[in-house]
Protein backbone atom coordinates (compact mmCIF):
# COMPACT_ATOMS: atom_id res chain seq x y z
CA UNK A 1 0.00 0.00 0.00
CA UNK A 2 1.14 3.56 -0.73
CA UNK A 3 1.49 4.63 2.90
CA UNK A 4 4.40 2.22 3.29
CA UNK A 5 6.35 4.32 0.79
CA UNK A 6 7.39 7.41 2.74
CA UNK A 7 8.43 9.30 -0.40
CA UNK A 8 4.80 9.30 -1.56
CA UNK A 9 3.17 9.99 1.82
CA UNK A 10 2.06 13.48 2.88
CA UNK A 11 4.17 15.24 5.49
CA UNK A 12 1.96 15.44 8.60
CA UNK A 13 2.34 17.84 11.53
CA UNK A 14 0.32 16.39 14.41
CA UNK A 15 -0.76 18.50 17.43
CA UNK A 16 -2.47 16.15 19.94
CA UNK A 17 -4.36 17.42 23.01
CA UNK A 18 -2.56 14.86 25.16
CA UNK A 19 0.07 12.21 24.58
CA UNK A 20 1.67 10.97 27.80
CA UNK A 21 -1.51 10.99 29.89
CA UNK A 22 -3.92 8.12 30.52
CA UNK A 23 -6.95 8.80 28.31
CA UNK A 24 -8.35 7.93 24.90
CA UNK A 25 -6.78 10.88 23.06
CA UNK A 26 -3.31 10.07 24.38
CA UNK A 27 -3.79 6.36 23.68
CA UNK A 28 -4.75 7.01 20.05
CA UNK A 29 -2.02 9.63 19.61
CA UNK A 30 0.70 7.25 20.76
CA UNK A 31 -0.51 4.60 18.33
CA UNK A 32 -0.64 7.17 15.51
CA UNK A 33 3.00 8.11 16.11
CA UNK A 34 3.94 4.42 16.32
CA UNK A 35 2.22 3.82 12.96
CA UNK A 36 4.26 6.62 11.37
CA UNK A 37 7.46 5.16 12.88
CA UNK A 38 6.72 1.64 11.59
CA UNK A 39 6.14 2.89 8.06
CA UNK A 40 8.93 5.51 8.04
CA UNK A 41 6.43 8.27 7.28
CA UNK A 42 7.44 11.96 7.48
CA UNK A 43 5.66 12.86 10.71
CA UNK A 44 6.11 15.72 13.19
CA UNK A 45 4.45 15.37 16.60
CA UNK A 46 4.21 18.61 18.60
CA UNK A 47 2.98 17.87 22.10
CA UNK A 48 3.03 18.90 25.72
CA UNK A 49 5.20 16.95 28.13
CA UNK A 50 7.69 17.15 30.96
CA UNK A 51 10.92 17.39 28.99
CA UNK A 52 12.88 20.55 28.38
CA UNK A 53 11.89 21.84 24.92
CA UNK A 54 13.92 20.12 22.27
CA UNK A 55 13.46 18.55 18.86
CA UNK A 56 14.19 14.84 18.56
CA UNK A 57 14.64 13.31 15.11
CA UNK A 58 14.42 9.57 14.48
CA UNK A 59 14.72 9.00 10.73
CA UNK A 60 11.46 10.46 9.36
CA UNK A 61 9.85 10.91 12.80
CA UNK A 62 10.27 14.35 14.39
CA UNK A 63 9.16 14.99 17.99
CA UNK A 64 8.88 18.39 19.64
CA UNK A 65 7.86 18.02 23.30
CA UNK A 66 7.15 21.25 25.16
CA UNK A 67 6.89 21.71 28.90
CA UNK A 68 3.79 23.23 30.46
CA UNK A 69 4.49 26.11 32.85
CA UNK A 70 3.46 27.44 36.25
CA UNK A 71 0.23 28.93 34.86
CA UNK A 72 -1.11 25.44 34.17
CA UNK A 73 -4.28 24.31 35.88
CA UNK A 74 -6.08 20.98 36.06
CA UNK A 75 -9.21 20.36 34.02
CA UNK A 76 -9.49 16.86 35.51
CA UNK A 77 -7.08 14.36 36.99
CA UNK A 78 -4.34 13.91 34.40
CA UNK A 79 -5.68 16.70 32.15
CA UNK A 80 -3.91 20.08 32.26
CA UNK A 81 -4.29 23.37 30.39
CA UNK A 82 -1.49 25.96 30.16
CA UNK A 83 -2.69 29.45 29.09
CA UNK A 84 0.99 30.44 28.79
CA UNK A 85 1.76 27.71 26.25
CA UNK A 86 1.96 30.39 23.56
CA UNK A 87 5.48 31.19 24.80
CA UNK A 88 6.61 28.18 22.73
CA UNK A 89 5.25 29.73 19.52
CA UNK A 90 8.61 30.89 18.06
CA UNK A 91 10.13 27.41 18.47
CA UNK A 92 7.04 25.72 16.99
CA UNK A 93 7.07 28.07 13.99
CA UNK A 94 10.77 27.40 13.31
CA UNK A 95 10.20 23.65 13.60
CA UNK A 96 7.17 23.69 11.29
CA UNK A 97 8.95 25.72 8.62
CA UNK A 98 11.95 23.40 8.72
CA UNK A 99 9.72 20.32 8.50
CA UNK A 100 7.65 21.64 5.54
CA UNK A 101 4.36 19.88 6.37
CA UNK A 102 1.68 19.26 3.76
CA UNK A 103 -1.11 19.13 6.34
CA UNK A 104 -1.65 19.95 10.03
CA UNK A 105 -3.76 17.62 12.18
CA UNK A 106 -5.15 18.62 15.60
CA UNK A 107 -7.25 16.66 18.08
CA UNK A 108 -9.23 19.41 19.78
CA UNK A 109 -9.37 22.90 21.32
CA UNK A 110 -6.52 22.48 23.80
CA UNK A 111 -3.77 25.10 24.06
CA UNK A 112 -1.73 22.93 21.67
CA UNK A 113 -4.63 22.40 19.28
CA UNK A 114 -5.41 26.11 19.11
CA UNK A 115 -1.79 26.87 18.25
CA UNK A 116 -1.84 24.17 15.59
CA UNK A 117 -5.01 25.57 14.02
CA UNK A 118 -3.65 29.14 14.06
CA UNK A 119 -0.36 28.09 12.47
CA UNK A 120 -2.10 26.08 9.76
CA UNK A 121 -4.02 29.22 8.83
CA UNK A 122 -0.89 31.41 9.05
CA UNK A 123 1.18 29.07 6.85
CA UNK A 124 -1.73 28.44 4.43
CA UNK A 125 -1.80 24.72 5.15
CA UNK A 126 -4.88 22.49 5.11
CA UNK A 127 -6.12 21.62 8.59
CA UNK A 128 -7.50 18.25 9.68
CA UNK A 129 -9.21 17.88 13.06
CA UNK A 130 -10.28 14.73 14.87
CA UNK A 131 -13.03 14.83 17.46
CA UNK A 132 -12.26 12.66 20.49
CA UNK A 133 -14.30 14.10 23.35
CA UNK A 134 -17.95 15.13 23.53
CA UNK A 135 -17.17 18.39 25.32
CA UNK A 136 -20.77 19.57 25.06
CA UNK A 137 -22.08 16.49 26.86
CA UNK A 138 -19.35 16.72 29.49
CA UNK A 139 -20.32 20.34 30.16
CA UNK A 140 -23.96 19.36 30.61
CA UNK A 141 -23.16 16.42 32.94
CA UNK A 142 -20.88 18.55 35.11
CA UNK A 143 -23.47 21.31 35.41
CA UNK A 144 -26.13 18.81 36.51
CA UNK A 145 -25.13 18.82 40.19
CA UNK A 146 -25.20 22.60 40.32
CA UNK A 147 -28.55 22.88 38.55
CA UNK A 148 -30.50 19.87 39.84
CA UNK A 149 -32.16 21.82 42.68
CA UNK A 150 -33.26 24.64 40.37
CA UNK A 151 -36.75 24.39 38.92
CA UNK A 152 -35.52 25.19 35.40
CA UNK A 153 -32.32 23.18 35.89
CA UNK A 154 -33.06 20.70 33.10
CA UNK A 155 -33.66 23.47 30.56
CA UNK A 156 -30.47 25.21 31.68
CA UNK A 157 -28.53 21.96 31.31
CA UNK A 158 -29.80 21.54 27.76
CA UNK A 159 -28.88 25.14 26.97
CA UNK A 160 -25.36 24.60 28.26
CA UNK A 161 -25.00 21.47 26.13
CA UNK A 162 -26.25 23.26 23.01
CA UNK A 163 -24.01 26.30 23.51
CA UNK A 164 -20.98 24.09 24.11
CA UNK A 165 -21.75 22.16 20.92
CA UNK A 166 -22.09 25.38 18.91
CA UNK A 167 -18.77 26.69 20.26
CA UNK A 168 -17.00 23.38 19.56
CA UNK A 169 -18.46 23.19 16.06
CA UNK A 170 -17.28 26.75 15.37
CA UNK A 171 -13.74 25.72 16.23
CA UNK A 172 -13.86 22.48 14.23
CA UNK A 173 -15.23 24.29 11.19
CA UNK A 174 -11.76 25.82 10.81
CA UNK A 175 -10.63 22.44 9.50
CA UNK A 176 -10.99 21.30 5.92
CA UNK A 177 -11.59 17.70 6.92
CA UNK A 178 -12.86 16.12 10.15
CA UNK A 179 -12.47 12.71 11.74
CA UNK A 180 -14.74 11.12 14.34
CA UNK A 181 -14.83 7.66 15.94
CA UNK A 182 -18.45 6.71 15.29
CA UNK A 183 -20.95 7.23 12.42
CA UNK A 184 -23.53 9.15 14.48
CA UNK A 185 -20.94 11.68 15.58
CA UNK A 186 -19.72 12.09 12.01
CA UNK A 187 -23.25 12.92 10.90
CA UNK A 188 -23.63 15.44 13.74
CA UNK A 189 -20.33 17.15 12.89
CA UNK A 190 -21.15 17.39 9.21
CA UNK A 191 -24.47 18.99 10.08
CA UNK A 192 -22.99 21.45 12.61
CA UNK A 193 -19.80 22.41 10.72
CA UNK A 194 -20.58 21.91 7.02
CA UNK A 195 -17.29 19.99 6.71
CA UNK A 196 -16.82 16.40 5.47
CA UNK A 197 -16.22 13.90 8.26
CA UNK A 198 -14.50 10.53 7.98
CA UNK A 199 -14.45 7.66 10.45
CA UNK A 200 -11.31 7.37 12.57
CA UNK A 201 -12.03 4.44 14.83
CA UNK A 202 -9.65 2.56 17.09
CA UNK A 203 -7.61 -0.59 17.01
CA UNK A 204 -6.33 -2.84 19.76
CA UNK A 205 -3.18 -4.89 20.30
CA UNK A 206 -4.62 -8.39 20.53
CA UNK A 207 -1.43 -9.76 22.09
CA UNK A 208 -1.29 -7.16 24.85
CA UNK A 209 -5.01 -7.66 25.50
CA UNK A 210 -5.71 -11.38 25.39
CA UNK A 211 -7.40 -14.15 27.42
CA UNK A 212 -3.91 -15.68 27.67
CA UNK A 213 -3.13 -13.15 30.42
CA UNK A 214 -5.80 -14.54 32.76
CA UNK A 215 -4.26 -15.39 36.14
CA UNK A 216 -7.27 -16.29 38.28
CA UNK A 217 -7.16 -19.72 39.82
CA UNK A 218 -9.89 -22.25 38.98
CA UNK A 219 -11.18 -22.13 42.56
CA UNK A 220 -11.83 -18.37 42.35
CA UNK A 221 -15.42 -18.68 41.19
CA UNK A 222 -16.74 -15.19 42.04
CA UNK A 223 -18.02 -13.38 38.94
CA UNK A 224 -15.86 -10.27 38.35
CA UNK A 225 -17.59 -7.18 36.95
CA UNK A 226 -14.92 -4.83 35.63
CA UNK A 227 -14.66 -1.15 34.75
CA UNK A 228 -11.68 0.74 33.31
CA UNK A 229 -11.70 4.51 32.83
CA UNK A 230 -11.96 7.86 34.57
CA UNK A 231 -14.05 7.82 37.73
CA UNK A 232 -15.99 10.97 36.89
CA UNK A 233 -19.55 12.23 36.64
CA UNK A 234 -19.65 12.24 32.86
CA UNK A 235 -18.76 8.52 32.84
CA UNK A 236 -21.99 7.79 34.76
CA UNK A 237 -20.05 5.60 37.22
CA UNK A 238 -22.70 6.10 39.89
CA UNK A 239 -24.76 3.50 38.03
CA UNK A 240 -22.31 0.81 39.17
CA UNK A 241 -23.45 1.21 42.78
CA UNK A 242 -27.07 1.03 41.67
CA UNK A 243 -26.35 -2.18 39.74
CA UNK A 244 -24.74 -3.74 42.81
CA UNK A 245 -27.79 -2.89 44.93
CA UNK A 246 -30.20 -4.34 42.36
CA UNK A 247 -28.23 -7.57 41.92
CA UNK A 248 -27.93 -8.03 45.68
CA UNK A 249 -31.66 -7.41 46.11
CA UNK A 250 -32.32 -10.24 43.64
CA UNK A 251 -30.25 -12.66 45.68
CA UNK A 252 -26.98 -12.56 43.76
CA UNK A 253 -23.99 -12.74 46.10
CA UNK A 254 -21.17 -14.38 44.18
CA UNK A 255 -19.92 -11.33 42.29
CA UNK A 256 -17.57 -8.42 42.91
CA UNK A 257 -16.44 -5.24 41.16
CA UNK A 258 -12.93 -4.47 39.91
CA UNK A 259 -12.66 -0.70 39.31
CA UNK A 260 -9.52 0.49 37.49
CA UNK A 261 -8.89 4.22 37.17
CA UNK A 262 -8.98 7.44 39.12
CA UNK A 263 -11.12 10.55 39.27
CA UNK A 264 -13.35 12.76 41.35
CA UNK A 265 -15.96 10.06 42.03
CA UNK A 266 -13.50 7.56 43.50
CA UNK A 267 -14.23 8.33 47.17
CA UNK A 268 -18.00 8.14 46.55
CA UNK A 269 -17.62 4.78 44.81
CA UNK A 270 -15.46 3.42 47.62
CA UNK A 271 -18.28 4.26 50.04
CA UNK A 272 -21.08 2.81 47.92
CA UNK A 273 -19.46 -0.25 46.28
CA UNK A 274 -18.90 -2.64 49.15
CA UNK A 275 -16.32 -5.33 48.45
CA UNK A 276 -15.03 -3.65 45.29
CA UNK A 277 -11.32 -3.60 44.49
CA UNK A 278 -9.73 -0.26 43.52
CA UNK A 279 -6.16 -0.82 42.26
CA UNK A 280 -5.97 2.69 40.73
CA UNK A 281 -4.51 3.33 37.28
CA UNK A 282 -2.84 0.25 35.80
CA UNK A 283 -0.49 0.01 32.83
CA UNK A 284 1.39 -2.66 30.92
CA UNK A 285 1.18 -6.25 32.11
CA UNK A 286 -0.82 -5.30 35.19
CA UNK A 287 -3.59 -3.88 33.00
CA UNK A 288 -3.48 -6.88 30.65
CA UNK A 289 -3.90 -9.28 33.59
CA UNK A 290 -6.69 -7.17 35.11
CA UNK A 291 -8.75 -7.20 31.91
CA UNK A 292 -8.26 -10.93 31.37
CA UNK A 293 -9.30 -11.68 34.96
CA UNK A 294 -12.70 -10.00 34.44
CA UNK A 295 -15.80 -11.98 33.51
CA UNK A 296 -17.94 -9.09 32.28
CA UNK A 297 -17.06 -5.48 31.45
CA UNK A 298 -19.61 -2.92 32.66
CA UNK A 299 -19.33 0.46 30.92
CA UNK A 300 -22.15 2.87 31.87
CA UNK A 301 -20.91 5.98 30.02
CA UNK A 302 -23.27 7.92 27.72
CA UNK A 303 -20.61 10.40 26.56
CA UNK A 304 -17.74 8.31 25.15
CA UNK A 305 -17.14 8.90 21.47
CA UNK A 306 -15.69 5.42 20.99
CA UNK A 307 -14.74 3.42 24.06
CA UNK A 308 -11.15 2.16 23.84
CA UNK A 309 -11.63 0.30 27.10
CA UNK A 310 -14.57 -1.64 25.65
CA UNK A 311 -12.46 -2.80 22.71
CA UNK A 312 -9.62 -3.79 25.04
CA UNK A 313 -12.07 -5.83 27.11
CA UNK A 314 -13.39 -7.63 24.02
CA UNK A 315 -9.85 -8.46 22.87
CA UNK A 316 -9.27 -9.91 26.35
CA UNK A 317 -12.22 -12.24 25.84
CA UNK A 318 -14.50 -10.23 28.12
CA UNK A 319 -18.01 -9.38 26.83
CA UNK A 320 -19.29 -5.89 27.66
CA UNK A 321 -22.50 -4.19 28.78
CA UNK A 322 -22.80 -0.66 27.33
CA UNK A 323 -25.44 2.06 26.98
CA UNK A 324 -27.12 2.89 23.64
CA UNK A 325 -25.36 6.28 23.47
CA UNK A 326 -22.07 7.42 21.96
CA UNK A 327 -19.49 5.14 20.41
CA UNK A 328 -19.59 1.94 22.52
CA UNK A 329 -22.80 0.53 20.91
CA UNK A 330 -21.02 0.68 17.52
CA UNK A 331 -18.45 -1.77 18.93
CA UNK A 332 -20.86 -4.26 20.53
CA UNK A 333 -22.98 -6.81 18.66
CA UNK A 334 -25.95 -7.05 21.01
CA UNK A 335 -26.44 -10.60 22.27
CA UNK A 336 -23.16 -11.81 20.72
CA UNK A 337 -20.21 -9.86 22.14
CA UNK A 338 -22.18 -8.29 24.98
CA UNK A 339 -25.36 -6.35 25.58
CA UNK A 340 -26.60 -2.83 24.82
CA UNK A 341 -28.87 -1.71 27.64
CA UNK A 342 -30.45 1.39 29.12
CA UNK A 343 -29.40 2.37 32.63
CA UNK A 344 -32.51 0.84 34.17
CA UNK A 345 -31.83 -2.45 32.33
CA UNK A 346 -28.14 -2.88 33.21
CA UNK A 347 -28.82 -5.16 36.17
CA UNK A 348 -31.18 -7.30 34.06
CA UNK A 349 -28.56 -7.66 31.33
CA UNK A 350 -25.89 -8.69 33.83
CA UNK A 351 -28.22 -11.10 35.62
CA UNK A 352 -29.09 -12.75 32.31
CA UNK A 353 -25.44 -13.50 31.64
CA UNK A 354 -24.70 -14.51 35.24
CA UNK A 355 -27.40 -17.18 35.09
CA UNK A 356 -26.50 -18.53 31.64
CA UNK A 357 -22.92 -19.91 31.64
CA UNK A 358 -23.16 -21.37 28.09
CA UNK A 359 -24.21 -17.96 26.73
CA UNK A 360 -21.37 -16.33 28.66
CA UNK A 361 -18.86 -18.78 27.16
CA UNK A 362 -20.13 -18.03 23.63
CA UNK A 363 -19.91 -14.30 24.27
CA UNK A 364 -16.34 -14.62 25.52
CA UNK A 365 -15.30 -16.38 22.33
CA UNK A 366 -17.16 -13.91 20.08
CA UNK A 367 -15.65 -10.96 21.97
CA UNK A 368 -12.14 -12.27 21.39
CA UNK A 369 -12.80 -12.80 17.68
CA UNK A 370 -14.05 -9.23 17.34
CA UNK A 371 -10.96 -7.93 19.12
CA UNK A 372 -8.73 -9.81 16.69
CA UNK A 373 -10.40 -8.03 13.75
CA UNK A 374 -9.81 -4.47 15.05
CA UNK A 375 -6.35 -3.25 13.96
CA UNK A 376 -4.67 0.14 14.21
CA UNK A 377 -3.07 -0.41 10.81
CA UNK A 378 -6.37 -0.35 8.94
CA UNK A 379 -7.62 2.73 10.80
CA UNK A 380 -4.54 4.88 10.17
CA UNK A 381 -4.22 3.75 6.55
CA UNK A 382 -7.75 5.10 6.06
CA UNK A 383 -6.71 8.42 7.68
CA UNK A 384 -3.84 8.77 5.21
CA UNK A 385 -6.20 7.99 2.33
CA UNK A 386 -8.34 10.91 3.54
CA UNK A 387 -5.31 13.20 3.69
CA UNK A 388 -4.58 12.41 0.06
CA UNK A 389 -8.14 13.22 -0.95
CA UNK A 390 -7.76 16.68 0.62
CA UNK A 391 -4.32 17.33 -0.87
Give an overview of the whole structure.
This protein is of the alpha/beta class and 391 residues long. It has two domains: 2-203 and 375-390, 3-Layer(aba) Sandwich (Rossmann fold), CATH 3.40.50; 211-373, 3-Layer(aba) Sandwich (Rossmann fold), CATH 3.40.50.2000. The protein has 13 helices and 16 strands. The longest helix is centred in the middle third of the chain and has 20 residues, at 153-172. The chain starts with 11 loop residues before the first strand and ends with a helix.
What is the topological layout?
Blueprint: E1 12-15, H1 24-38, E2 43-49, E3 54-58, E4 61-67, E5 73-76, E6 79-81, H2 89-99, E7 103-106, H3 111-122, E8 127-130, H4 135-147, H5 153-172, E9 177-180, H6 183-193, E10 197-199, E11 223-228, H7 238-249, E12 255-260, H8 266-272, E13 277-280, H9 284-292, E14 296-299, H10 308-315, E15 320-322, E16 338-340, H11 346-354, H12 357-373, H13 376-390
Parallel strand pairs: 1-2, 1-7, 2-4, 7-8, 8-9, 9-10, 11-12, 11-14, 12-13, 14-15, 15-16
Antiparallel strand pairs: 3-4, 5-6
Helix pairs in contact: 4-5, 7-11, 10-12
Q: pLDDT under 50 segments (min length 5)? A: 1-5
**Second CATH tier, the architecture of the largest domain:** 3-Layer(aba) Sandwich
Kindly name the structural category.
Answer: alpha/beta
In DSSP terms (H or I, runs of 4 or more residues), the helix count works out at 13
Distance between the termini: 18 Å
The chain-level mean pLDDT equals 89
CATH fold description of the largest domain: Rossmann fold
Strand order of the largest sheet: 3-4-2-1-7-8-9-10
User: Main β-sheet: number of strands, strand sense, barrel status?
Assistant: 8 strands, mixed
User: What is the CA-based Rg, rounded?
Assistant: 22 Å
